[in-house]
Each structure stands twice: as C-alpha cells, then as structure tokens.
Amino acid sequence: MRRELTMWLVAVVAVALLPLAIGSDRYFMQLANVMLVFVALAVSWDVVARTGQLSLAHGAFFGVGAYTVALAHKYGAIPPLVGLALAVLVGTGVALALGAVTLRLRGIYFAIATLAFGEVLRTVALQVPDVTGGTIGISMPPLFEGDRVASYYVIGAIALVAVALSLTIRYTRWHYAVTALRTNEAVAAAMGVPVVRTKVLAFTTSAVIATLAGAYYMPFITHTDPNDAFEVSRSVAALAFPIFGGIYTTVGPVIGTLVLRSLEEYLRVTPPWKEGYQVVYGAVIVLAVLFIPRGLVGVLQRLRP
Amino acid sequence: MEALPQTLLFGILRSGLYALTALGLAISLGVIGIVNFAHGEFVMLGAYLGFWTYLALSGPLGVGPAVSPLVLVLGIPLSAAVMFFVGRGLFRTTLRPLLPRPELDQMLLTFGLGILIQNLVSIVLSPQAQDANIPWRFELLQLPGGTLAVTYARVAAFVVSLVLVAGTYVVLAWTPLGKQMRAVAQNRLGAMVIGIDVHHVYGVAFGLSLALAAAAGVTLIFQTQVSPFLGLATILKAFSIVVLAGLGNLFAVVWASLLLGLSEQFVSQYVPDGSALRDGLFFLIIFVVLLLRPSGLGRAR
After folding, report:
1. Which long-range contacts (CB under 8 A, 24 or more apart) does B96-101 make?
2. Chain B within 8 Å of A113 (Cβ-Cβ)?
3. Cα B168 to Cα A107: distance, rounded to the nearest angstrom
C-alpha cells in the first residue's frame, strides 16, 4: 500500500510540474488537458466495473455535464466554474434515478439501460433544437480566456478526485465489499454487504466524475452539440482504456489512457483509419477480454520475478 | 376519425420488423444467457449481404417491379445461412471460453465485437450510407374500401417478418432442436441431466440468433439505406422489446413488439410535436417496466 501511494504522490507532483516543461506549447498543453479528461473518465468507469456492473453511460454523463454548463451559460449567464458545481448536482440526481431503478436487478438490465440512456439523450436533444441548438449546438467563451495552463489544473484536480476515489475503494473495507459483490452477489448479501446501496453509491460517485469531466471539457473547447456530447465513442473509450491497461486497478486505467489515447491521436489523422480509428478500441476490448483479462498491468505483474 | 385506422395499421406494420429483430436477441439471451450487444451489427452485416445479393442479381435478371421483390427476398436465406455459420464459429471461438467467466466479461466481449465490426465495415467499405434504389420502394398500395394507402415496401417488410417470426416459433415449438433450446432456456442443469448436449444447443441457438439478425437486416433494406452505423438504433428498440417481454420469454416478444410499434405510432400521430417523444419512447418503456414489473409482460416460463 505504502509503495503504491508513494508512486501516486510522485506521479501527481510530476503532472503538476508538467506545464513548466510544455506550458508554452499549445498543442501539447491541449493534449495534456484531453489526456486528463480521459484519465478521469477511465478511472471512474473502473470504479463501477469493480462492483461487477458494465456502465455504457459514462460518455452520456460526460454529455450531461457539457450541456449543464452550456445551458447554464445560455439561459443564466452562469460562469463555467459555477457550472461545474451545478453539474455535480445534476449528475448526482440523474445517476441516482438511473441507478436506483436498474441496479436492483440483474447486471444486464443496468448495461442495457445505460446504453439506451445516452442514445435517447442524443435523439431527444436533436429534436429540441430551440434548447440544445440542434446539430449546430451551443458555443460559449473559453475557460480562463483560453489559458490552457490554468485550465490544466482544473481538470488535474478532477482527475485527482477520480484517482483518490479509486484508491480509497482499493485500500478501505469498500474493497472487500465490491470484490465480494463482483464475485457473487448472493454470497455478498449473505455476508452483510448492502448490495444495492453499494452499487448505487459506486455508480453515482463515478458518474459525477464523468459529468464533471464533460462540464470541464465543454467550456475548454467552447462548443458542444447533441451528436458530440452524447456520442457512444466516449463511452467506448471510457471502458477500452481500463480494460487494456488493467481492470479493477487504479494505475491500469491511467496507463491504458496514455497508450491508447496517444495511438488515437495518430490514427485520427492517418488514412485509412481516420474516423474508423475506433476499430482499434473494438479489437483491444475483444482481445484483452479473451487473452489478457488483467490488462497490461496483469502482464507486467506476471513478468516480474 | 380517419386517422385512427391508419394509426393502427401503421403501428402494426411497424412492429413486424421489430419482432424479427428482437426475437434473435431474445434467443441468445434466453437460451445462452448472453447479452449480445453486437446484435445490431449482425443486422447490419445481414443488410449488406442482402444489398450485394440484390445488386448482383437485379442486373442480369432485370429490376422490373415484378422481379425485384423476389430478388430481394432471395437475399434472406442466403445471408441468413452465412450468418448462421458465422454465429456458430464465433460462439465456439469467443463466447464459449467466456461462459464460466463473470457476466461483465461476456458483455464486454459482445460490446467490443460490435464496435469492431461497425468500424471495420466503415473502413473497408465506406462510412457513407448506400441505397439499393429499389424501384417500388415508394409505390403506394391502395387498400380496398377506401382511404388508406401504404407503401409496398412497408407491407412487404411486414409480411416477410411475419413469415420468418412464425417460422421460428414453429421450429421452437415442434422440432426436437427447438424443444432442446427451450429446455436449456428453462433449466440448464435439468437439460444436461436428461442428456442434452448443452454446448451444442448454445452454438445452434447463437447461429439461429444471428441468422434472424441477418434476415432482419435484409428486410430492413426494403425501406431504408444500408450504413455501417444502423446497428445501434436497431438494437436499442429490440432491447426494450426483450425487456418488456421478460428475459427468456420468447413468445411474448410478439406482443411486446406490437405494443412498442403501436405506441410509437400513436404518439407521433396524436401528441403535438410527438417525434421527440416517439424516439425516446423505447427508453421510457425500459425504465417503466424495470420500475414496475421487472419480470416483463409474460409469465416466467
């Protein structure tokens, strides 16, 4: 435990000092921001996975956050940082409602409902262009007048919350609760784990982080629209990264994000991949589930003498 | 008042293809216990197979209105057969090793498979939607007795779906293999005890599920274009039908499809600006069913 915490401390300091090295380079600062957005998404997705549940809604909560900030600015001229606080409230409410209904039942219901959730938000948002801006979407002025170093620390804080949550679950009695839950729900219940409450709590905290990531991202890139906000590919990324890096760990999702998001950065501009770059995510998910169910972290652990 | 019979008719026509799509999903879920998130992508692959069959054959045979429906229908057994064997192969190589593993892994696999197929098709072919340009797509069929008119395409898609769904039920109800599938769906262990080769039945059920998906795909191009991304919209409604019917309840799929088709049609007809609500209706159904009656419409069997 101490070893892992020391490692994280070093990592946090390194991330905090990174702008000293690349702060003047707009492209790399942009990339660093985006990386942290996906670190928050991937780490928080893994928290839900630890309870044995498949969330296909992390991209959708990201969109909920983006639209919360965008609509708060459009209708109430509310500044983006206040919008972040608002996004916490909205995210909590939506996740509680969705979780309370679906997490009482078998896991497949939750997975189906979360997949449907994002798609229904997208289609309905497209049907009410007066509010959402339709396919054109909504724009707003950039966070901190476009100062990417300042905004880097905001998303850094959000990612840190995600990591802290993940580590807390790993090193407290929650670890035993969620592991028991994942292995066998009936046995966990018999041992006294509050099954539904644990699942709802894990999902809600995790979804709030995804909402925050979206609420941050929207004013960072200054624009959102229903197709972008609720696109499935973000939910795919949120689960492909942890699976590749190492599911049920904290460091796995981070490693997965760094490797796969860098690869995406390259593929997006390289024919014949371009928009089809997601084929890599599909292949990674399938191959990892079949051959390296513990991800890169698992492989490294096995190699270590 | 004239709107009422038309709403009913369109609602029923709409539900035919829904039932065909949902039945395949219900079989893999009911018999094997696998949530196939890639089902929509198999519908899409079936649609492409039907599309190519149509293009290849409609040239030499001529695309006269009398011939082209037959050519299109010919694509169904062809693509269904291909997808049946794809399904058995996929089951043996990917799903079967995962059966002892947690449900999460199985769902991740089918979800990943769906993403893989969708984007592979988009890279290899084209992300653009393609049109079969079926000459009779928009031709109207005047119903006897008056004011109602529907496109041939809608009626044809409904009739084909009806025949295939009915045929599948016949197989499930009366053939030995169908009985074995239902036995496995009801009680895995019991089926094993009485000597059913459960894994063989799983493989066949998955093949059948994909064959139905392929048939639904071909039927889909009666009315719309083919695109690598048609899977998601298709599968979500199918999921809502399966949830409404109750997991593993293969026979309630028809009633659930009718309910979805009719309520969608009624909402878009009678609710002002109902199109947003119509497109979100399937989610409302999932949500309300899970809230009030998680076991679904039918009795558990």
Report:
1. B96/B199, B96/B202, B96/B203, B97/A290, B98/A289, B98/A290, B99/B202, B101/A293
2. yes
3. 28
Minimum CA–CA partner of A278 in chain B: B119
| ipTM of predicted complex | 0.93
Amino acid in position A181:
L
Q: Is it the case that residue B61 has pLDDT exceeding 80?
A: no
B47: helix, strand or coil: helix
Checking if the pLDDT of B116 tops 90, the result is yes
Q: Can you tell me the mean pLDDT for B63-85? A: 81
Q: Does B288 touch chain A (CB under 8 A)?
A: no
Interatomic CA distance for residues A235 and A57, integer angstroms: 6
Q: What b/e readout covers B50-87, taking b as 16+ CB neighbours within 10 angstroms?
A: bbebbeebbeeeebeeeebbebbbbbbebbbebbbebb
Peptide bond into B100 cis (omega under 30): no
Assess contact for A42 and A181: CB atoms under 8 A.
no
Q: What is the reported pLDDT for A269?
A: 84
pLDDT band (50, 70, 90) for residue B63 = low
With 0-12 / 13-18 / 19 or more C-beta atoms within 10 angstroms meaning exposed / middle / buried, residue B167 is exposed
d(CA A208, CA A89): 8
CB pairs under 8 A between A and B: 132
Greatest mean pLDDT among A12-21, A158-167, B51-60, B147-156: A158-167
pLDDT interval class at B250 (50, 70, 90):
confident
Cβ pair A105:B294 closer than 8 A: yes
Read off the pLDDT of residues B36-48 as tens digits, 9 standing for 90 and up: 999 999 999 999 9
Q: Which residue has the tokens 């001529």?
A: B62
Residues 6+ apart with CB under 8 A from B224: B230
Please report the pLDDT score of residue B64 as a whole number: 57
Q: How close A127 gets to chain B, by Cα (Å)? A: 5
Instruction: Give A106 to chain B, closest Cα distance, Å.
Output: 10
State how far the alpha carbon of A293 is from the alpha carbons of A30, B6, B233, in Å.
32, 53, 30
Q: Is A132 on the interface with B (CB under 8 A)?
A: no
Query: Which of A112, A236, A289 faces B115 most closely, judged by CB atoms?
Result: A236
Task: Tell me what pLDDT residue B301 has.
Answer: 42
In the block, tokens 């009666």 appear at B222
